[in-house]
Amino acid sequence: MSEPSVNRSRAAHRERLDALCWLLLALLGLAFAALAVQLDARLGTASAPFLGRYKIRIGPGTVLAPLVAAGALWAAARPRFTRLRWREIQLFGYMLGLAWAIALALVDGWSGLTKTLGSPEEYLGDVNRVGDHPFEYLRHFTADAGYHSVASRGHPPGPVFFLWALRQIGVTNHIVLGFLIAAVSILAIPLVLAAVRDSVGEEAARRYLPVLVLAPYAIWTAVSLDGLVAVLGAAAIVAGLRASRRRMQGWAPAGWALLAGLLVGVAALFSYSAPWLGLSLVCVYFARRRPSLNVLSGVGALLPVLGAQLLGFSWAAGLVAAETDYAARVAPYRSVLWWSAISVVVLLLAAGPPLVASARKVRNTAMWPFLVGAGAAVLFSIVAGLARGGVEHAWLPFFPWLTVAAVAPERPAGALPPAPLILVGLGAIAAMIIEAVLVTPW
């Protein structure tokens, strides 16, 4: 048997072991969550590890989602896939990722795209408060936090203003809004692929595409505005990678670094956890020996935040108000000990089987800066007691970066493994099961 055949055989065996490991961990985690519910632990929900309620549904997506998953896996395994040009790869990934997210949402029919928008606990309920006086709303955003929807209380005003802007240009139909939010959120796929290509080469990015396209967390991507934060964060990292390229000279690195910071700053106006992605930028700059770019990205990140403060919204005061509301509204009713462990289960299920391979091979890849930023964000929220339900959508900006090492070599500087289609397929099955039995609030 030739050496390439031996390597493929070993990679397939290792992939099956990773799949088995994930399956065992997932079952143990679900058993732990079920035990917590049975013990009547302070969870605030009977649908742990997720928020929502369990109810088996049959809808268009019940048939559509398996077809999309099968088609994506079939296409990724074809020799023709390797001959596509890079832009075609990115477009292919975007279209399939959008189809996968929409197919999962349509398990609930059209309400799968609109129920979040129509909920009184979500951002759209606050758009009427903006009215024709956006600057006044911004100035009183923190002081009036108690009058906001539950979603707005825990976030900066960015999501409300995004929906307000769409209304101003005439986008009011909830189905159209749902499709638009999904279409924008899925832009994270080509952006993450671009980051992987810039870090470790195009071949690794091509093999990572199925992991992104059929990710289980797509269940929440099509229905959560946290997907916009994922896009902004991914765009920031791509800009930072371009700024730190060795062949970049003159003013170009400064421009890209400033843009990277600006994007992180804008993301921070959508989510208080978004600045953690800036840690990935810091690591990228140091890994590529361009630490001076941190100054420019830091300045860029401050500009949107300071701009908002000049208009009346203090990011720091908003963060304090969000933490105060969380401590009064959520913390007393959800056990930090139980949820800290259950949130790890959510991470395992939402990121899917590639998470196991990525964790195992993180030391073998130059993509470690991405994992540092995302991993630090997840770890901090757990240690700080902030992960008490709902992390399946709150961690959307971090999930893609936690699985990037799934396509890393088995040893440093070794040969790239094939695309982990077994792990991807198992994750897709898990996503379809979750979507079929769980009615989420989003």
From TrEMBL:
Keywords, alphabetical:
Membrane, Transmembrane, Transmembrane helix
> Does this entry carry the keyword Protein transport?
no
Residues crossing the lipid bilayer are 20-38, 58-77, 89-107, 175-196, 208-241, 253-286, 293-316, 336-356, 368-387, 421-439
What is the designated name of this protein? Answer: Membrane protein
